[in-house]
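Q: Can someone sanity-check these two? First one:
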Amino acid sequence: MYRLFIADDNELARQALKRSVQWAELNCEFCGEASNGTEALAFIAEKKPDIVLMDIKMPGISGMDVIAALREQGVDSLFIMVTAYDDFTFMRQGMQMGVFDYILKPVADNELHTVLRKAVESLAEHEEEKQIAQNYKEKSESYAAQLKEVNEELEEKLFIDAVNGSKDSSERFAKILKAKYRIHDYFLMLVVPEEEREGGQSIDEFIDRQCSIMAECSRIYHAHAKGIWIKEGYLMLLSFARTMFLKEYDLQSLRMAEFICRKNEEASAGVYMTISHVSSSFEELSDLFGQVLFCKNSRFFLENQKIIHYDSLRSRSISGEYLKMRKLEELYAACREHRASVRDCMADFLNQFSVNEIYDIDYVKNILIQAAIMMVYIQREAGAEENDFPDVNDVVKELSEMHSLQNAFQWMQDFADRVEMSGDIRRKISQQTKKILDYSNFPHRLVC
């Protein structure tokens, strides 16, 4: 039902108008009346009726002034002027304010009915147009949201493929980011949970918190950021809005890392960060990814620092530690690829601990424990049987109980022998035997 309001200083005129309207037939209902402009202005501004029959000449504020004031307030009621004056000046003024129509007094019933019917039809058409516009807006927003989601999924896939070495994905990813942010120089940053506790934060909680912190950090430091979750942690590609000198990039990246660490600590969730070198070529994205992983795997060499910048690992002050880290990475690579070089890689790694240097035995044992644990995990991921290698807890126990570095080094060399021998045995198994073993280990399903 459309609500209709009458404003006229003549009581008889108002009563006549109310009696003349065929309310039900026109789908209208009477909602109020006023005898002067002041009352009309207050009522219409508050109630916002659909249709107003407004007398032009009223005591106090005129009908025209009432309409002008209401239009300034944004009231879009449909106004029909009722007047005894056939004056073009009034009509032109009303047209400028969007008055719908005019009725001359004395008002004829059929003329009033015709004008009101036209007004109702106009309102119905307007509502239909508004509904169409609203539907279009909702569909457009839905399509835009879907498109954004698809684009974000595509960017995440390209990001993951690019850091894993796909040249085509790197080129496509670079094209997208350069179009969106005009990215030139960039670096990678990896945020890693300090520890995973049972009943603690979930991955979703961790990701949501990093997204929120990253958005705040980007605003403060005027940086563009793209983040994804990978098994190693939350990986971010960051680029600043302006080009800077290399030293400025390093300082700003460290400031951002400190900000992210502090925000996580405020949420009682400790993290540590690794930062890559700055590059302008997306072809180096995979190399930069290797740098942040290298920093992550080397953290225990640096007494568990909270923030590790790849460039700092190559500085002269810790050049010896850097070589140890590199040799350890080569050992891990040999374990993963089951090459016949695990023994040699282990020997090269242990040789980095020069007999002429003095080491804290607990510090070295901690490094060896971390290395052995990683080797166990690599073998398990490669499908080795649990009985082939000691349990992680046994590794920690056995190495922790070593009373000399010589014994600890010998334990590590023996462990490397077992790893390499395991690889040799698997290579010597015939293809037919491998198929039998693979079949026997495959989880069968009953076919109904």
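And here is the second, same format, sequence then tokens:
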Amino acid sequence: MHSMGIIRQSIQLSWENIKSNKMRTFLTTLGIIIGVTAVISLITIVNGVIATVINEFASLGAGTISVSITGTPLKSGLTESDLESLEALDNVAGVSPTISSTGMAARNQKLLDSVSIQGKNEVYYAHNSLVTVGRGISEWDVENSAYVCVIDQDIADKLFAGENPVGQTLTVSGTTYTVIGLEGQNDDLMASMSGFGSNYDGTITIPYTTARKVTGNSSISSLEIYVADTDFTDQLMDEVESVLYLAFNQNENSYYVFAMDSLLDTMNQMMGTMTYMLAGIASIALLVGGIGIMNMMLVSVSERKQEIGLRKAMGAAPGRIQLQFLLESVVLSLLGGIIGVILGMLLSLIAARLLDTDFVFSASAVALGVGFSTAVGIIFGWAPARKASRLSPIDALRSE
């Protein structure tokens, strides 16, 4: 109890001294405030950006294995038999082949010179909520090679401006299709990366069996395999590669298998490293702030020599003198740390709004900011506090 009373009294004395020098206190803690604000805001902003990017990528392909076929001189792509072998694997929720081509689209004397034509099946639409009006491609459409299509917003704006396109027809490379569905604006991350938005007038999706018929291309060069249980994605990838290895006569250079989950793991590791690097750079400001606190406390010791000498003459132990000055340094640093945490969070919230990213509250960032500021107060306050405790009472009382 006695030691607690000493600590409480020392804190009170430290606080009174801090309040009596408001301008110097502000200038001293400014370095800590800037340092903690930088650490908190950088970590929180980066975490928000990471969360947004990860969520975007996850929505585009988490739980999906993508297969790209380069083929061999004897076999350019996958056959229906190969698809059945892949569908028969354990943990496969569905297989969606893709046949891609380009062509022209026309309606009512409006012509689009370059559209992306994608051949898909019902599995693709079962695993991707893309259609905003109408419906996606069905199993019946695939089995009967129906002349139906799903168009994106770009095609709708250019050929069906002001109209509901569902139920109407358009001509694609000389063949008439009935529009059965409309996809939302194609502005996601993957579309931007693939360059569809800039290279094509839009995208038209038809049953892949119809695409094989109109293009004369019976082989499949790419597909997506949907994973039933993502805990076993790596195992399924190995099984998929085994099927492809046999399908292409043991030529492992004729195909490429890729899982978005692997990319997400890599991105998480890279982003985590980047966060720590940024936090380390921002912590330099805390070092500068700590030097400022040490300078201020050394000046304070010089100015208060008579007070120190009087207290020692009245029986104050060196340890108590040292504790008071050390606590004064810690209070200064903590004050700057708390203000820095508040400013850092506010800055992060504003940045999240401006960047249109998630605001991710990070308890670890707050703990890091407060912990750093406390450590700075102890480390850089130790030398001045030690100097104060070692002053001779006679020499201190003689000083002017």
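A (reply): Looked at the second one. DSSP finds 15 helices and ten strands in the chain. The longest strand covers residues 92-107.
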